[in-house]
């Protein structure tokens, strides 16, 4: 049984995938700050936007939509009352 990162949903198959190589941590190395703590939603969102834009060749706006949809499904961010959550059929602003 493999764990999943609570922040980004990435499967963590070995200790090396966990933050700081620590199996007790429920987030992955990609969601870890240099000091070993978990990145904030904002930090995670920005890195994910960059990643999606690059890997899928999308504009930053499209990549941001996808990243936000994905992140709101992850356990770490669920129930979060966020101004960043996409609201269907309504104009969203680019303010942060
Ligand atoms: Zn992660």
Structural summary, described in words:
This protein has 96 residues and is mainly alpha-helical. The protein has one domain. It contains two helices and two strands. Strand 1 and strand 2 form a beta hairpin. The protein starts with a strand and ends in a 24-residue tail after the last helix. The C terminus is likely disordered. Zinc ion binds next to loops.
Key features?
mainly alpha, two-stranded antiparallel ribbon, disordered C terminus
Task: Please write out the topology.
Blueprint: E1 3-4, E2 11-12, H1 41-56, H2 60-72
Antiparallel strand pairs: 1-2
The chain binds zinc ion.
The site of zinc ion (ZN) has 8 residues, from loops.
Offer a quick outline of the entry.
By secondary structure, the protein is mainly α. 30% of the residues lie in helices and 4% in strands.
Distance between the termini: 38 Å
Mean pLDDT across all amino acids: 86
Global structural class: mainly alpha
Low-pLDDT stretches = 85-96
User: How many domains make up the coordinates?
Assistant: 1
User: Percent helix among the residues?
Assistant: 25-40%
Sketch the major β-sheet.
Answer: 2 strands, antiparallel
The succession of helices and strands, N to C, reads: EEHH
Proportion in β-strands: under 5%
Q: How many strands appear in the DSSP assignment? A: 2
Please give the count of helices: 2
Bound molecules: zinc ion
| Strand order of the biggest β-sheet | 1-2
How would the global form be characterised? globular
């Amino acid at each position: 049984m493999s764990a999943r990162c609570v922040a980004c949903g990435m499967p963590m198959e070995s200790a090396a995938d966990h933050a700081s190589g620590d199996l007790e941590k429920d987030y992955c190395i990609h969601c870890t700050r240099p000091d070993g703590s978990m990145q904030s939603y904002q930090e995670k969102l920005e890195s994910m936007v960059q990643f999606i834009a690059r890997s899928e060749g999308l504009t930053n706006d499209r990549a941001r939509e996808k990243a936000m949809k994905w992140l709101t499904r992850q356990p770490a961010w669920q129930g979060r009352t966020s101004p960043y959550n996409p609201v269907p059929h309504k104009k969203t602003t680019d303010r942060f």
